[in-house]
Amino acid sequence: MTTDPTVPGSQPLGPKPATPAKGVKPRTTRAGMAWVATAVGLVLLILLIAFILQNQDMVTLRYFGLAGTVSLGVALFIGAVGGGVLVAVAGAARIIQLRAIARRARRVPD
User: Fold this and answer.
1) CA neighbor of 98 nearest in space, from 90, 109, 108
2) What is the number of domains present in the chain?
3) Of the segments 9-13, 15-19, 47-51, 105-109, which one has the largest average pLDDT value?
4) Which end of the chain has less neighbouring CB within 10 Å, N or C?
5) What are φ and ψ of residue 40, in 5° steps?
6) Is 60 a domain residue?
7) Are the C-beta atoms of residues 70 and 59 closer than 8 Å to each other?
8) 7 within domain boundaries
């Protein structure tokens, strides 16, 4: 916004900027939440990379007769991902179960 300094009492040119009222919080949007989630994810990824790089000692993994050598950081990461997969599978099974119950409840008239 600009004003004409040569004209006394001139009004600003252009639209007046929107100023939030005092005590009113800005609206939370999905784009804002996605941006925050992305930023947090990137910070966690940087911390994970630092963890793996600091734990380069080689360890032997054995699983059902298979054996292999990987770095300690990668082995722990594989274990964490495996645990996350188990939690996701259990959660998905529960969601499917609840959806089936809700579907049956909608079909049965009272």
Assistant:
1) 90
2) 1
3) 47-51
4) C
5) -65, -40
6) yes
7) yes
8) no
Using an 8 Å Cβ cutoff, are 77 and 52 in contact?
yes
User: For the segment 25-70, what is each residue's pLDDT rounded down to a tens digit?
Assistant: 778 888 989 999 999 999 999 999 999 999 899 999 888 999 999 9
DSSP string of 61-107, one letter each residue: EEETTEEEEEEHHHHHHHHHHHHHHHHHHHHHHHHHHHHHHHHHHHH
CB 26, CB 20: distance < 8 Å: yes
Residue type, 98: L
pTM of the model: 0.57
The SS3 assignment for 58 reads strand
- The identity of residue 27, as a single letter, is R
* Two tokens, residue 14: 């252009």
Residue 70 burial (C-beta neighbours within 10 Å; 0-12, 13-18, 19+): middle
Phi-psi region of 66 (alpha: psi -120 to 50; beta: other; left: phi over 0): beta
